[in-house]
UniProtKB/TrEMBL annotation:
It holds the Pfam family DUF3458_C. Its EC number is 3.4.11.2. This is Aminopeptidase N. CDD domains: M1_APN.
Length: 847
C-alpha cells in the first residue's frame, strides 16, 4: 500500500463552490446524482490544471457530464481522472451503489432496515465521485427520495414529506461531515434557545421501541449547548440539531453537521438497562460530538495529519465539561487511568506515533489514544502554561481568525503565540516526538532549602530517532511532617534535559508532591519511601496526587509480590483503610482509591523495570491483594455498603453514582468473605442496571453466578445493548484458563451476530482486555482472536484493524508467547486480499 506524507501536502487545484446531491434510495441499487460547481483555486501552487482527479470507490458510474456535455473519465479502483476546461465548470455524475451489501459501515450502508452514512475519514468516496479531502469545503444541498417517513441530511430542512425531502446546509463543510439517514424512526424532540435568542429544535431519532431511552441524551445535549456558550462563548448555528441512534457502527459517534450519528450504545440510556458508567460515557460523547460543531466543523483540519487539531481539542473540551458536570478530581483520575492503560501502552510499542503523525497508509488506523487522549493532554499543558485567561483569549482568537478554515497545528499554536507573546517552538515538540517522556526526580535537602533536580529522557523510536527535550509543566507542592501543606502548588516549567528548582526558607524537610493533577503526560520516577508515600496518601492536599500515592504504594507492593511472592504491603493496606473509611471524602473518590492497577499496567511496569511479565503471576498477585483488602477492611465493609445504599429515586448523577460505586466496591470485596450471599440479595432486589450488573459480577467471582446469568439472559434477550453486557461479562469474569474457551462458546450462541461491531467487541474486546486469559500460555486466546480477525477482515476492515492492537505488546512477553503471537500475526498477514487497514496495523506491529 502507498504511504502518504505530511510533507507532500498540496492544495486541491479547484474549489467546490456548491454541491447538489440527489439520492434515490434502494437497498441494492441506490442512485446518487451529483452536480458540483468547480472554480480554479487561487491558492493552488501549480495554477490551473488540465486534468482533475476525483476519489471514488466501489461506485458504478452511470454517466458523467462536464458543462452539460457527456464525458468518459478514466476509472481506477481509487477514483477517476477527467480532462477539464481551464476556468470554472460544472461536473455532473450519476452513480449506483449497494448500501445493503456495505458491511464495512463506511459510506452509505444499512443497519436494521434504515439507511445511514459514515463518511469520516474517507467514506464519502463510496457515495459519489468527489475530492474527498477535508480542505475542500462546500455548501451542500441534498434531495432524498425513498419510501421512508424520515429522510434526513445536514443543515436545515427545505422540504420534508413522506418519501421526499430536501435539505440545505448553509455552512461550507468537507465531505467527511456529510450525512444521510432514512428509515422508520421515532423522534424524541426537545428545544433549546441560544443566548442570542435562536430557537433550535432538537431531535433524537431512534428505532421504534427505544423511545424510553432518549430523555437522558436529550438533557445531555441541552447541557452541552449551554456549557459551550458559558465556557467558550460558542453558540449553535442552525435551526435544527438531529441525533440518530444506529445499531451497526464502527466507533462511538460522528459529528456530521447538524446530523450527529451515534452508535446506539453511546446515546440510548435507561435506569433499567444502563449502568452509571454508561450514563457518564453517553453524556461525555454527546458533549464531544456537539462540541465538534465549533472545533472540527466550523474550523476543520487542512489534512488528516492535523487530526489532533479537532480531536485533541474536543476531547479536552469534553473532559472539562464532565469535570464541571460531575467531580473534577474523579474525572481527572479516570482520564489518567485510561491514558496510562491505552496511550502509554501505544507509546511503548511498535504502534507509537507522534500526536501529529508525518505519514500513514490508512488514516482509519490513526484514530488512536495518542491523537485523541495525548492530543488533549497537550492542550491541557498549554492551558497550564499560559493560564486560564490567556487560554480563553487564544481560543477566542482561534475561532475569530479561523472560522470557515481548514486549519493546521501551526495555525493553532500561532494564536497562542500572538495572544501571549510566547515562543512555542519548543512546546511544538509535543506534536512531533513520539513516546512518553520519563522525568526522574532527585531531592537534596540542606539548610532549609529543598532542591529538586529533574531529568527528562525520551527513548528513541521508529518515528523519533533523536528526541530533544520538551517543555514540561511540573505542578509541585510540599507537604510538611505534620501533614500540612508548606508550599502550595507552583507550576515549574522544565525546558532543559536536566534542571533544578530550589524551595527556600523551610523549617524541616517536607515530602514533595510532584506532578500534581498529572500536569504532564509523563512517567515520573520519584523515589519515595513507603513511609513518604503513606504520608502523601494520608495528607496530600492535591486530590490527584493523594490518589496517586495510594496507587504507587499498591503498585510497588504488587510488583514485589509478583517478583518475590512476599505478602501485601501493610503500609498500603493501613493507608487505604484510613482513606476509605474517611466519611469526609467523596464516595466516588474513595471507590477509586479501592481500585488497583490493571494487569496490563503491571505488565508495563515490569517491562519498564527490565523484567519479563508473567501474566499468571500478575493474576495471582492481584487476587492475593484483593483477598488481603477484603480481610483487612472486613470490619468496615458491611457498614460502607449499608451507608451508601441509595434510597431516593434513581438518578445517574455524580452523587448517586459515587455512592453506588463505593457500595459496589465494598460488595465486591465482601463477596470474597460471604460466598456471594449479599450479591445474590442485591441481584434479586436491583431496580437498575448498575446494581444488577455489579451484583452479577460479584456473584460470578464468588462462584454462585450461574443461575443469575441464565436469569439475566432470559430477562434481557430482546435488548441488544444489555445482551452485549451479558456477552462481555462472561469473558471478563472467566478464569484465565477458561477465557478463550468461554469466548469461543459465546461465538456459537444464536445471538452472536459477528457482523455487528458492538457484539464482536463484547466478546473479543473483552478477551483482549482479559490479560491473563488472552495471554494464557496455551496460546488459545491468540489463535481464537486471529481466526476471527481473518473472518471479519473482508467484511469490516476498520473494526478488524482496530482489534489488531491486542497484539501490539507482544515484545514484552517471554520468547514462547512472542512466537505464539507472531505466528498468529503472520498467519493473518499471509491471507490473500487482506485489507489495507489490517495489513498496515500488523506490519507495523510485527516490525
Ligand atoms: N470524528 C469521529 C471519528 C471517526 C468515526 C466515528 C464513527 C465511525 C467511524 C469513524 N471514523 C472516524 C468521532 C469523533 O471523534 O467524534
Ligand atoms: Zn471527536
Amino acid at each position: 500500500p502507498e504511504t502518504i506524507y505530511l510533507s507532500d501536502y498540496t492544495a486541491f487545484p479547484w474549489t467546490a463552490k456548491s454541491v447538489d446531491l440527489h439520492f434515490t434510495l434502494d437497498p441494492h441499487a441506490t442512485r446518487v446524482r451529483s452536480c458540483i460547481r468547480f472554480e480554479p483555486n487561487p491558492a493552488s501552487p501549480n495554477g490551473p490544471e488540465s486534468e482533475m482527479f476525483l476519489h471514488g470507490e466501489k461506485l458504478k458510474l452511470i454517466h458523467a457530464k462536464i458543462d452539460g456535455a457527456p464525458v468518459t473519465p478514466t476509472l481506477t479502483n481509487e477514483g477517476l481522472t477527467i480532462a477539464v476546461p481551464s476556468g470554472s465548470f460544472t461536473w455532473e455524475a450519476e452513480v449506483e451503489i449497494d448500501p445493503a451489501n456495505n458491511t464495512a459501515l463506511e459510506g452509505l450502508y444499512m443497519s436494521g432496515g434504515m439507511y445511514c452514512t459514515q463518511c469520516e475519514a474517507e467514506g464519502f468516496r463510496k457515495i459519489t465521485y468527489y475530492p474527498d479531502r477535508p480542505d475542500v469545503m462546500s455548501v451542500f444541498s441534498v434531495t432524498i427520495d425513498g419510501p421512508h417517513p424520515v429522510l434526513l441530511s445536514n443543515g436545515n430542512p427545505v422540504v420534508t414529506s413522506d418519501n421526499h425531502a430536501q435539505w440545505h446546509d448553509p455552512w461550507p463543510k468537507p465531505a467527511y461531515l456529510f450525512a444521510l439517514v432514512a428509515g422508520d424512526l421515532i423522534a424524541h424532540s426537545g428545544q433549546f434557545t441560544t443566548r442570542s435568542g435562536r430557537d433550535v429544535t432538537l431531535n433524537l431519532y431512534v428505532r421504534p421501541g427505544d423511545e424510553g431511552k432518549c430523555a437522558f441524551g436529550m438533557q445531555a445535549l441541552k447541557d452541552s449547548m449551554k456549557w459551550d456558550e458559558d465556557v467558550y462563548g460558542r453558540e449553535y448555528d442552525l435551526d435544527l440539531f438531529n441525533i440518530v441512534a444506529v445499531d451497526d457502527f464502527n466507533m462511538g459517534a460522528m459529528e456530521n453537521k447538524g446530523l450527529n450519528i451515534f452508535n446506539s450504545s453511546a446515546v440510548l440510556a435507561s435506569q433499567e438497562t444502563s449502568t452509571d458508567l454508561n450514563f457518564e460515557r453517553i453524556e461525555a460523547i454527546i458533549a464531544h460530538e456537539y462540541f465538534h460543531n465549533w472545533t472540527g466543523n466550523r474550523i476543520t483540519c487542512r489534512d488528516w495529519f492535523q487530526l489532533c487539531l479537532k480531536e485533541g481539542l474536543t476531547v479536552f473540551r469534553d473532559s472539562q465539561f464532565t469535570a464541571d458536570m460531575r467531580s473534577e478530581p474523579v474525572k481527572r483520575i479516570g482520564d489518567v487511568i485510561d491514558l496510562r492503560g491505552r496511550q502509554f501502552a501505544e507509546d511503548q510499542g511498535p504502534l507509537a506515533h507522534p500526536v501529529r503523525p508525518e505519514s500513514f497508509q490508512e488514516i482509519n488506523n490513526f484514530y488512536t489514544a495518542t491523537i485523541y487522549e495525548k492530543g488533549a493532554e497537550v492542550i491541557r499543558m498549554l492551558k497550564t502554561l499560559v493560564g486560564d485567561q490567556a487560554y480563553r483569549e487564544a481560543l477566542d482568537l482561534y475561532f475569530e481568525r479561523h472560522d470557515g478554515d481548514a486549519a493546521t497545528i501551526e495555525d493553532w499554536l500561532q494564536v497562542f503565540e500572538d495572544t501571549t507573546g510566547r515562543d512555542l517552538s519548543q512546546f511544538k515538540r509535543w506534536y512531533s516526538q513520539a513516546g512518553t517522556p520519563r522525568v526522574a526526580v532527585n531531592e537534596a535537602w540542606a539548610d532549609g532549602t529543598l532542591t529538586l533536580t529533574f531529568t527528562q529522557t525520551l527513548a528513541p523510536s521508529a518515528t523519533t530517532a533523536d528526541p530533544q527535550p520538551q517543555v514540561i509543566p511540573l505542578a509541585v507542592g510540599l507537604i510538611g511532617k505534620d501533614g500540612r501543606e508548606v508550599a502550595s502548588t507552583q507550576v515549574l516549567e522544565m525546558t532543559q534535559a536536566s534542571q533544578s528548582f530550589a524551595f527556600e526558607g523551610l523549617t524541616e524537610a517536607p515530602v514533595a508532591s510532584i506532578l500534581r493533577g498529572f500536569s504532564a503526560p509523563v512517567v515520573l520516577d520519584h523515589p519515595l519511601s513507603d513511609a513518604q508515600r503513606a504520608h502523601l496518601l494520608a495528607h496530600d492536599t492535591d486530590p490527584f496526587n493523594r490518589w496517586e500515592a495510594g496507587r504507587n504504594l499498591a503498585q510497588a507492593s504488587l510488583l514485589d509480590m509478583i517478583r518475590t511472592g512476599v505478602k501485601p504491603n501493610a503500609a498500603y493496606l493501613a493507608g487505604l483503610k484510613t482513606v476509605v473509611t474517611d466519611a469526609t471524602l467523596d464516595p466516588a473518590y474513595r471507590a477509586l482509591m479501592m481500585g488497583l492497577p490493571s494487569h496490563s499496567d503491571l505488565a508495563t511496569a515490569l517491562h519498564d523495570a527490565g523484567d519479563i511479565p508473567d501474566p499468571e503471576a500478575i493474576h495471582t498477585a492481584v487476587e492475593t491483594m484483593r483477598t488481603a483488602q477484603a480481610t483487612d477492611l472486613a470490619e468496615h465493609l458491611e457498614e460502607l455498603y449499608a451507608a451508601h445504599q441509595v434510597s431516593e429515586a434513581y438518578q445517574p448523577d455524580a452523587a448517586q453514582s459515587g455512592a453506588r460505586a463505593l457500595a459496589n466496591a465494598a460488595l465486591s470485596l465482601l463477596s470474597r468473605n460471604d460466598g456471594g450471599a449479599l450479591a445474590q440479595q442485591q441481584y434479586a432486589s436491583a431496580d437498575n442496571m448498575t446494581q444488577q450488573l455489579s451484583a452479577l459480577g460479584a456473584a460470578i467471582r464468588a462462584g454462585v453466578g450461574a443461575p443469575m446469568l441464565e436469569q439475566f439472559q432470559q430477562q434481557w434477550r430482546d435488548d441488544r445493548l444489555v445482551m452485549d453486557k451479558w456477552f462481555a461479562l462472561q469473558v471478563v469474569q472467566a478464569k484465565p484458563e477458561d477465557a478463550a474457551a468461554t469466548a469461543k462458546a459465546l461465538t456459537e450462541h444464536a445471538d452472536f451476530n459477528w457482523k455487528n461491531p458492538n457484539r464482536f467487541r463484547a466478546v473479543f474486546g473483552s478477551l483482549a482486555m482479559h490479560h491473563a486469559g488472552f495471554h494464557h500460555g496455551s496460546g488459545d486466546g491468540y489463535r481464537l482472536l486471529a481466526d476471527w480477525l481473518i473472518k471479519l477482515d473482508p467484511v469490516n476492515p476498520q473494526t478488524t484493524a482496530r482489534m489488531c492492537s491486542a497484539f501490539q505488546t507482544w515484545k514484552r512477553y517471554d520468547p514462547a508467547r512472542q512466537s505464539l503471537i507472531l505466528e498468529q500475526v503472520n498467519q493473518i498477514l499471509t491471507k490473500p486480499d487482506l485489507s489495507r487497514d489490517t495489513t498496515e496495523m500488523l506490519t507495523r506491529i510485527a516490525e
